[in-house]
Design a protein that fits this description.
Blueprint lengths: L18 E4 L4 E4 L13 H16 L19 H5 L4 H10 L1 H8 L2
Antiparallel strand pairs: 1-2
Helix pairs in contact: 3-4
């Protein structure tokens, strides 16, 4: 898929700015930030796909939120369900940065 704006973290992004939540930094960061740190991040494949989708939404003038109008059940939000499909490296990364999930997952 060709994007209207550069979404490769190795190059500067110059599209519409929006806040993107970064798990590693535990905060919202500008989409226009230096994204080179994302390349080595354990969740880069997941975050990159989300970033590309957010850029497409922002380019269309829509809300770039990935959670707007999202409806989840209590079962969807269990640690087991949230870790489903992640590699061991990705699970370890998330557990490091979201300690509450690590405790819940380890108690299962």
């Amino acid at each position: 898929m060709t994007h209207r704006f550069n979404v490769d973290p190795r190059n500067p992004y110059d599209g519409p700015d929006f806040d993107e939540f970064c798990i590693a930094e535990k905060s919202y960061l500008s989409a226009r930030r230096d994204r080179s740190d994302c390349i080595a991040c354990a969740l880069s494949k997941l975050c990159q796909a989300g970033f590309e989708h957010q850029v497409d939404l922002a380019a269309q003038g829509r809300d770039p939120s990935l959670t707007k109008d999202c409806q989840l059940t209590a079962e969807d939000l269990t640690a087991e369900r949230l870790f489903d499909g992640l590699t061991d490296e990705q699970v370890d990364f998330v557990k490091t940065h979201i300690p509450g999930l690590a405790k819940e997952h380890d108690n299962v």
